[in-house]
């Protein structure tokens, strides 16, 4: 271990000494009345119980807040509010700022956790203080929580187990998407988040962009089990604003090449460009799968996504 990495591990270990909850699950909330109750319930049902659940409402105008308040008797739940709606990246950043624990999980307001998600991931972080983050696989579900496809993300063998920054960064460039999973898959150290500068500027790359920053502060660990469920909801950010998302993706990948010229090689870029049609097809399939579950289009897209 290099002197720089040893110093980073020591810093994380000392600052991670618990004085409150062990884990903060933060949920940035905006207009998710239909789903937020199920999201909150999945967190409160964890077998690991030493956590706080922070829901930050971004000035929603639907019934989202009322759905969260239905769980107000649970002392682990804390509902916070923005006085006015702020951009997505600012809402995510403030949600993490409100966290009090050394380990943080950001969960989308329509996604779900399996009951053992925190227990399994905390155990890995406790066993290896040099880890900046862990991630797992996820299942795709529809509006009614029906599973569309299982075991998504971390499909490359070199993303499983303990990996260093170079491997992760190269795989991100080659994938041209989010090979590490969605926000709810990840558990990270707050110290690493602060040291890395928090979330990137691109809303589309919040998850993979943050992971790319976190691996500069410590190692990555990929888990082969599915511990979260990512919702393909009609009208969600996954199924809208495609052109803007592609532009942000390209800008993010260019930034990785600039920031890590000794890691990202020309062949990584070439392999990523060759894979671009596959990435585009996957995005289209996910958009179609978020459509009417009784339609032929939905059934065909769901069948392909299961491959």
Automatic annotation (TrEMBL):
Q: Which SUPFAM superfamilies match?
A: Nucleotide-diphospho-sugar transferases
Give the highest taxon in the source lineage. Bacteria
Q: Where is the Glycosyltransferase 2-like domain?
A: 24-194
Q: Which Pfam families match?
A: Glycos_transf_2
Q: Which PANTHER family match?
A: GLYCOSYLTRANSFERASE, GLYCOSYLTRANSFERASE 2-LIKE DOMAIN-CONTAINING PROTEIN
What protein am I looking at? Glycosyltransferase family 2 protein
Recorded source organism is Actinomycetospora atypica
């Amino acid at each position: 271990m290099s002197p720089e990495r040893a110093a980073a591990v020591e810093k994380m270990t000392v600052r991670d000494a618990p004085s409150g909850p062990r884990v903060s699950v933060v949920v940035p909330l905006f207009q998710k009345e239909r789903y937020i109750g199920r999201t909150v319930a999945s967190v409160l049902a964890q077998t690991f119980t030493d956590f706080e659940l922070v829901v930050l409402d971004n000035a929603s105008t639907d019934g989202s807040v009322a759905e969260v308040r239905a769980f107000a008797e649970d002392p682990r739940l804390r509902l916070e509010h923005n006085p006015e709606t702020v951009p997505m990246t600012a809402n995510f950043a403030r949600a993490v700022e409100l966290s009090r624990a050394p380990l943080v999980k950001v969960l989308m307001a329509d996604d779900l956790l399996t009951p053992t998600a925190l227990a399994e991931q905390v155990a890995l972080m406790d066993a290896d203080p040099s880890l900046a983050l862990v991630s797992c696989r996820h299942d795709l579900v529809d509006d009614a929580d029906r599973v569309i496809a299982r075991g998504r993300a971390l499909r490359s063998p070199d993303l499983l187990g303990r990996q260093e920054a170079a491997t992760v960064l190269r795989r991100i460039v080659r994938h041209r998407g989010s090979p590490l999973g969605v926000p709810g898959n990840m558990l990270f150290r707050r110290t690493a988040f602060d040291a890395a500068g928090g979330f990137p500027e691109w809303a589309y790359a919040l998850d993979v962009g943050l992971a790319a920053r976190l691996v500069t502060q410590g190692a990555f660990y990929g888990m082969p089990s599915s511990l979260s469920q990512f919702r393909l909801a009609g009208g969600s950010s996954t199924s809208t604003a495609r052109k803007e998302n592609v532009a942000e993706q390209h800008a993010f990948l260019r930034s990785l090449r600039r920031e890590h010229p000794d890691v990202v090689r020309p062949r990584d870029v070439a392999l990523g460009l060759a894979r671009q049609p596959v990435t585009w097809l996957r995005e289209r399939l996910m958009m179609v799968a978020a459509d009417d579950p009784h339609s032929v289009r939905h059934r065909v897209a769901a069948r392909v996504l299961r491959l």
